[in-house]
Amino acid sequence: MLDKRFVVKESEGNSLTSRKFYVIIDRETGVNYLYVASGYGIAMTPLLDREGKPIISMNGPEYYS
């Protein structure tokens, strides 16, 4: 079993704005999620390709350790 199931692949935003974006990867499945935090609100959704299928990282869980 993995120590940390989810890892942040990319982040964008700064302390001057209240909106921050993160690409989070589930290390067990490889599925990429977009997480947005703005003020007191948050949203999270899987990232999808042109065909509507979830984007899955090509590398296995060991890559994101």
Write the layout of secondary structure elements.
Layout: E1 6-12, E2 19-26, E3 32-38, E4 41-46
Antiparallel strand pairs: 1-2, 2-3, 3-4
Essential attributes:
4 strands, 65 residues, mainly beta, four-stranded antiparallel β-sheet, 0% helix
What letter string, H or E per element, gives the SSE order?
EEEE
Please state the structural category.
mainly beta
Helix content: under 10%
- Cα gyration radius (Å): 13 Å
Strand content: 35-45%
The outline comes out as globular
Largest sheet: 4 strands, antiparallel
Number of domains: 1
Q: Strand arrangement, largest sheet?
A: 1-2-3-4
- Overall number of strands: 4
Mean pLDDT: 85
Short description:
Strand 3 (32-38) and strand 4 form a beta hairpin.
Describe the 3D structure.
- The protein has 65 residues and is mainly beta.
- It has one domain.
- The chain is built from no helices and 4 strands.
- It has strands at 6-12, 19-26, 32-38, 41-46.
- The protein is globular.
